[in-house]
């Protein structure tokens, strides 16, 4: 039987609060402070003015102490509260069967009683059929890695983590059929023995295959398409038409629409992937600048299988990362690093200690720096610690960026490994992300709009004093035939640039996270206003956010309609899922149906 569980669920802290408050009556919810004030301050007419004044202040003191005691016992926190993920405070204990599920960044969270994990296709078919009969929503959700929580739904979710098998490998055709719940790393590890690997990878390996395809995820390489283009056939479990198979040959119209279908056209149960021979890559990392990049950009896009730029705001530094197959004749390059790992991290460590000492001086707190622990921290962990001291302080962010530029300068060199090992990237801690995709000409004739975009973005950051941390990652892909892909294009040779801006969330303090969130959306909205229309840029589906204002939402809907076949997409939704059991608020808001109330 299928099991109801959560990917990364956590019991609410209210369960703990319940045990501490069960014998203490809560304070009245509608006490009137003015009433208390009158009771404490009323005096007989015969009292002297001095006695009245004393009683008045005694009354104030009693009110203050009483309020403090009532607050402490009404809203207690467990001893380890500071170590818990930030979340909105809830005033009542949650039922035992209600779980909190959040995405990896902790930016989106829902509570649900319905989280279903089928173990095979038959159980999945029954779940979808029964939900459709009851008109019970069950949104497909993958590993919960999407920054915008596109798969989350309070009403209910279905997750295929237990459907994670490799079903068939065709060594001759270099194809593999898998259940859609398998994670990328598990898939790659499973097909290595057959001499196969995936053509390209996103930054991390923990995504489920179904999720990474449905949101149009991508790696980098101007001659390589996004991940969805690697899928040559799919098996969808739909509410209205049951289980259907689509491919380039079988129902191609639906195939190209559903391949990047955002989970709203059916639950992807199985996929067949076009693979390539497993191979090693040589990664070359070096520091450059905009002038050098302008001279070499066209050549670099054409000559390198994988390439990306990491722009460091408030510096002239651009980190260039090239990855290419190891030469069968020359082998991997021989290279001796100029600096050790400790030397590369030294400026970041010194900056952290210096900033920490200054923080202690201004707050009069005792300072304890555990040197062994500090030396154990990675580059991204050090950056998080530095930013956590004052994440919205532009001057601090500038210093952190400068120290990061120094780290990359001292980390120049080569690295060799299997393609899945080399193409990964440590994205750092929890963060807000906005990533846009826009056309950049062709490989034969790049438009250079990608570099113009970055120059304008950096100028915008500086002119508006945005506390923008590093890096701003820029990648490229070829076009996709999937109609809903941000890189969709009928032109075979068109290339697209993907640019991601970030703001880290290095703190667990709820109020501070709220302030960081507001600053991030100010940053994002400025880029939207100044750049998106000018460069025909559209957000990654896993990073798009639904605006709160009606006018902003209407504007976004119109923009999406101008870029994507929204009518065709909605028509397929109504045919395959007329009760909209696979949709959530995000899908409904972005693609409203005529019958949506």
Quick check: average pLDDT?
86
Distance between the termini: 36 Å
Using only CA atoms, what is the Rg?
28 Å
- At CATH level 3, the topology of the domain at 166-278 is Uridine Diphospho-n-acetylenolpyruvylglucosamine Reductase, domain 3
Helix/strand class:
alpha+beta
Beta-strand residue fraction: 15-25%
Strand tally: 22
State the CATH architecture of the domain at 166-278.
Answer: 2-Layer Sandwich
Task: Enumerate how many helices there are, as a single number.
Answer: 18
Strand order across the largest sheet? 18-15-17-16-20-21-19-22
Shape field:
globular
CATH class of the domain at 166-278: Alpha Beta
Low-confidence segments, given as residue ranges, are: 1-47, 71-92
Largest β-sheet summary: 8 strands, antiparallel
Helix content: 25-40%
Describe this structure in words.
Among the domains are: 99-159, Uridine Diphospho-n-acetylenolpyruvylglucosamine Reductase, domain 2 (2-Layer Sandwich); 166-278, Uridine Diphospho-n-acetylenolpyruvylglucosamine Reductase, domain 3 (2-Layer Sandwich); 341-410, no CATH class. Helices cover 37% and strands 19% of the residues. It has helices at 14-21, 33-41, 49-74, 121-134, 184-191, 209-214, 252-258, 290-303, 341-363, 371-376, 379-388, 394-409, 419-422, 449-463, 510-535, 550-563, 566-576, 585-590, and strands at 3-4, 9-10, 99-102, 109-112, 115-117, 139-140, 157-158, 166-170, 175-179, 196-197, 231-238, 242-247, 267-274, 276-277, 280-288, 306-311, 318-325, 413-418, 431-442, 472-478, 494-504, 538-539. Strands 18-15-17-16-20-21-19-22 form an eight-stranded antiparallel sheet. A five-stranded antiparallel sheet has the order 8-9-13-11-12.
């Amino acid at each position: 039987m299928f099991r109801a569980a959560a990917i990364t669920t956590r019991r609410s802290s209210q369960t703990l609060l319940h045990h501490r408050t069960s014998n203490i009556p809560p304070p009245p919810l509608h006490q009137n402070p003015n009433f208390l004030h009158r009771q404490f301050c009323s005096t007989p007419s015969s009292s002297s003015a001095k006695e009245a004044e004393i009683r008045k202040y005694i009354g104030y003191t009693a009110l203050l102490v009483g309020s403090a005691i009532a607050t402490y016992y009404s809203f207690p926190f467990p001893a380890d509260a500071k170590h818990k993920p930030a979340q909105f405070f809830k005033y009542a204990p949650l039922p035992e069967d209600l779980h909190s599920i959040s995405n990896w960044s902790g930016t989106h969270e829902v509570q649900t009683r319905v989280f279903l994990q089928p173990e095979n296709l038959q159980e999945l078919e029954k779940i979808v059929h029964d939900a459709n009969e009851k008109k019970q929503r069950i949104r497909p959700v993958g590993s919960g890695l999407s920054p915008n929580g596109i798969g989350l739904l309070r009403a209910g979710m279905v997750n295929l983590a237990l459907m994670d098998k490799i079903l068939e490998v065709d060594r001759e055709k270099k194809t593999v059929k898998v259940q859609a719940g398998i994670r990328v790393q598990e898939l790659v590890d499973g097909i290595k023995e057959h001499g196969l690997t995936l053509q390209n990878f996103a930054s991390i390996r923990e995504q489920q295959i179904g999720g990474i395809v449905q949101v149009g995820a991508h790696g980098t390489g101007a001659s390589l398409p996004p991940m969805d283009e690697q899928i040559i056939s799919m098996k969808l479990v739909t509410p209205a038409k049951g289980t259907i198979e689509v491919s380039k040959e079988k129902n191609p119209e639906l195939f190209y629409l559903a391949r990047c279908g955002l989970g709203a056209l059916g639950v992807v149960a199985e996929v067949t992937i076009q693979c390539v021979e497993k191979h090693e890559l040589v990664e070359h990392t070096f520091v450059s600048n905009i002038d050098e990049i302008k001279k070499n950009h066209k050549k670099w896009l054409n000559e390198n299988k994988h390439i990306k730029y990491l722009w460091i705001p408030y510096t002239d530094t651009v980190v260039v990362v090239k990855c290419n197959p190891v030469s069968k004749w020359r082998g991997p390059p021989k290279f001796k690093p100029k600096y050790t790992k400790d030397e590369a991290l030294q400026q970041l460590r010194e900056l952290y200690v210096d900033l920490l000492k200054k923080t202690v001086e201004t707050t009069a707190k005792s300072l304890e720096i555990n040197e062994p622990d500090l030396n154990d921290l990675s580059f991204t962990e050090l950056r998080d610690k530095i930013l956590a001291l004052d994440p919205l302080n532009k001057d601090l962010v500038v210093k952190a960026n400068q120290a990061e530029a120094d780290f990359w300068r001292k980390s120049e060199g080569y690295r060799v490994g299997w393609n899945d090992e080399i193409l990964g990237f440590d994205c750092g801690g929890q963060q807000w992300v906005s990533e846009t995709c826009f056309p950049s000409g062709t490989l034969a004739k790049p438009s250079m709009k990608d570099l113009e975009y970055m120059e304008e973005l950096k100028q915008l950051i500086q002119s508006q004093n945005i506390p923008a941390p590093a890096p701003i990652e820029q990648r490229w892909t070829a076009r996709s035939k999937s109609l809903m892909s941000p890189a969709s294009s009928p032109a075979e040779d068109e290339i697209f640039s993907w640019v991601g801006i970030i703001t880290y969330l290095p703190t667990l303090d709820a109020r501070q996270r709220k302030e960081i969130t507001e600053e991030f959306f100010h940053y994002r909205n400025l880029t939207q206003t100044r750049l998106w229309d000018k460069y025909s840029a559209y957000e990654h589906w896993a990073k798009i956010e639904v605006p709160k204002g009606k006018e902003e939402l209407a504007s976004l809907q119109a923009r999406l309609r101008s870029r994507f076949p929204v009518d065709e997409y909605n028509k397929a939704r109504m045919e395959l899922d007329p009760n909209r059991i696979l949709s959530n608020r995000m899908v409904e808001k972005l693609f409203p149906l005529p019958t949506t109330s």
